[in-house]
């Protein structure tokens, strides 16, 4: 199958209790494409960077099977830049700098060769751009997933509701699910949010794993218990990329296969947080990933045979 | 096998956002014994009540296979009473009243017929009493589990460390694990705590499930996602009781069987929170429990077959 990812390709500067970085490669679409590449070898990307973005990373994406016709490179302009500092608990962070740069006037042009893409992952961007991408695809993808964030709920809720009405799966965290639904019970929130459009909902709970809701079915996946989370940046995008890469590569939209896709995404996310930025994702092998998935099997699976005296 | 539970048998008065109760039956040993009775039919109890405690509940415990020779009934005295009010998020609560009454001078007398009990569950009590019970058992039980709380860490840490050095399994919540270990990472905490004595550690995470640690193995069990938690009182004791009842009835201390026991405990705890106090536990059937366990199988299990194009 084929997977199209739309989102930021950018620079980050990150500070955590364990250290800080200069400008390093970041961006939702970067993490998503890298993670998805462990499963799906036929990927496309619609994004924009300035001419400050390193050719080396573009080459890396190409090597991993990402078609880059949809990556716009704006001469004389700068790539999107975000800088943030995590608090000691690693669950909250302060944004220090946001420079939109090329993202300010991003027009998501879909190359003709991308028409007919079967799976679409909309990384966190303005809901207007997300909707524009869906509308520009002449044939609706078989499955559309999206990420968003509380910022858009605050300033563009009407636009966000339009996007939500057009997608199949929303992937957000617990705090965002509570804000979007207005209720604190995640089970109740999942019903309210799915009435807005998406038939599937994944609620990410960080160190507590993730929940998948569809109809009356729920799947609860754990996160891998780690001694330290070194840098959480990109973990959510890596999870989404692993999930969608798995779904696209298998072409199987059953609930059982979505469970597997969540484990695949969780395994990749557990690597992502071990080093700064994309560093770890770029240096693990297919075997590393497969053995991490087996750790999840041991961590979460049980064989319920019980006998009462 | 046989299971001995030591802990409070008491009255509670509870207020939650959904309503409030008068004095109702509570106490750690009550919840533990009721939950364990779904699996283990050969139970014993060491506890103390006043003569205000209803004979009806004593009869109910007896019907469920709990030998009551070790239940002391103090004429002219009153049973332990706790009253608390849960905050809107149900994760925190204020204690309104604590009347120790008969617990103030509780001497945990072990009936001769209880010697040789194979499994011991020490409900939350002063560490001194917990240690006394272990010391009074002439033959060490095959497996000793205990609960405790932050209160004893605050005022009786030295005594607590003595008890910890004598047990096999500690069952506490995440906040207690962080306080006991002095670190915030639960993986690190699990190592520090297990160096204090118990080879097994269960960390309860409320709506996020529970983690079991042993050697290098970890099992992550989810909690059942619920629309509402009506009353969390006793959920932790119910979990422990279900766990130990399962372990005692199967007599199997393998890690795989402990996974099953955690699911059994989680299933019973998910019922417990649906109504005030012990009400729900008293009205579910063996079939209700078994079907709830099957919900956990669907919720948590996955079959990892993946194929990369």
Can you walk me through this structure?
- Chain A contains eleven helices and 15 strands.
- Chain A is globular.
- In chain A, the strands form two sheets. In chain A, strands 1, 5, 6, 7, 10, 11, 12, 13, 14 and 15 form a ten-stranded mixed β-sheet that branches. In chain A, strands 2, 3, 4, 8 and 9 form a five-stranded mixed β-sheet that branches.
- With 309 residues, the first copy, chain A, is α/β, with parallel strands linked by helices.
- The first copy, chain A, has one domain (3-300): UDP-N-acetylmuramoyl-L-alanine:D-glutamate ligase (3-Layer(aba) Sandwich), CATH 3.40.1190.20.
- Chain A has helices at residues 28-36, 55-63, 127-136, 150-155, 157-164, 174-181, 186-194, 235-250, 255-272, 279-283, 286-300, and strands at 3-6, 10-16, 19-20, 24-26, 43-50, 66-67, 71-74, 81-86, 93-99, 119-122, 143-147, 169-173, 200-204, 210-214, 217-221.
- In chain A, β2 and β3 form a beta hairpin.
- The N and C termini of chain A lie far apart (52 Å).
- Chains A and B meet through α7, β15, α8, α9 and α11 of A and α7, β15, α8, α9 and α11 of B.
